[in-house]
Amino acid sequence: AAAAHNSHAGATAPASGSGSGASRLAIKDDRVVVSFRHTGDAPVLKQSKFKLPSTVRFHTVGEKLRELLQLQKTDPLFLFCNSSFAPPPDQILGDVAQCFHVDGVLTLNYCTTPAWG
Predict the structure, then answer these.
(1) What whole-number distance in Å separates Cα of residue 18 and Cα of residue 30?
(2) Max CA separation in the chain (angstroms)
(3) If you compute the radius of gyration of the chain from its CA atoms, what whole number of angstroms results?
(4) Contacting residues for 91 by C-beta, under 8 A, at least 6 apart
């Protein structure tokens, strides 16, 4: 009877406002949880959340997303943080995550035409 009420221990994403304690860290085990959200007519990813190394530059995040979306190098792709600004290509992902994460997840919007900024 010890674990009867702990059946959701393996859940990866608790519901918002679940009161699970302190807010999550932006970087855990040198990784950042990134949630990609499409905007406009950009292709939709089957899986939208990824754990990426915190030390990579934003340029590398864009390359990874381009690969996931099967876009060519010549296809336009824009990444925005908080639906408002595009971090510079040489910005470190972990630095952006520490400033702009929400509950341990950095949300990045992507589109194939400029939408913000």
Answers:
(1) 25
(2) 59
(3) 16
(4) 57, 58
**CB 29, CB 104: distance < 8 Å:** no
Q: What is the mean pLDDT of residues 90-102?
A: 95
Residue with the two structure tokens 């007519």: 41
**Is-contact 104 26, C-beta < 8 A?**
yes
- Summarised one tens digit per residue, pLDDT across range 38-88 is 998 899 999 999 999 999 999 999 999 999 999 999 999 999 998 889 999
Average pLDDT of the segment spanning 24-36: 91
pTM (two decimals): 0.75
Kindly state the tokens that stand for 38.
Answer: 């499409």
User: Which tokens in the block code for residue 94?
Assistant: 């972990």
